[in-house]
Amino acid sequence: MAGGTVEGRLAGLGLKLPAVAAPLASYVPALRTGPYVYTSGQLPLVEGKLGVTGKVGAEVTPEEAKDLARVCALNALAAVKSVVGDLDRIVRVVKVVGFVASAPDFTGQPGVINGASELLGEALGDAGVHARSAVGVAVLPLDAPVEVEIQVEVAD
Q1: What's the burial of 152, exposed, middle or buried (CB within 10 Å: 0-12/13-18/19+)?
Q2: What does the alpha-carbon distance between residue 117 and residue 44 come to, in Å, rounded to a whole number?
């Protein structure tokens, strides 16, 4: 990949791939089937802790939530790496689904999930361009403001 490795690009952004977040229930962080890896929904956990809780548009600003979506995407990349061993095997991010715990009148979900999309683009270049859904929901696990899941295609 031009510009170095995925983890090298992350380091250039001042980011380090975290340890994979432990599941909160009965599931695995990521699963490979054929050339695809699907992640479970990733919360903005840092060192196993959720630093911010609440609804976007109420207790959490859209700007804060956008930063949290970046953390979710970083956690999703860690989950992918746990399955394939090397992020440079990612051929393409196929789909991103973002959930935003939203105050009743908040309609800026796409801007929040841009945090995840932008991080994937910065880390993966053209391979980070993807289809996406950004959905407002009433509540997320642990009262997290945002949750992101990704699907990637990987090379053998």
Answers
A1: buried
A2: 14
CB 130, CB 124: distance < 8 Å: no
Could you report the per-residue pLDDT of 9-57, keeping only the tens digit for each? 999 999 999 999 888 889 999 999 999 999 999 999 999 999 999 999 9
Three-state DSSP at 95 gives strand
Rounded CA separation 4/9 (Å): 7
User: What is the pLDDT confidence band of residue 1, given thresholds at 50, 70 and 90?
Assistant: very low
For residue range 52-87, what is the model confidence (pLDDT) as tens digits?
Answer: 999 999 999 999 999 999 999 999 999 999 999 999
Phi, psi torsion values for 143, nearest 5 degrees: 65, 30
Residue 22 is predicted with a pLDDT of 85
Distance linking the first and last C-alpha atoms of the chain: 16
CA 13/CA 37 separation, integer angstroms: 24
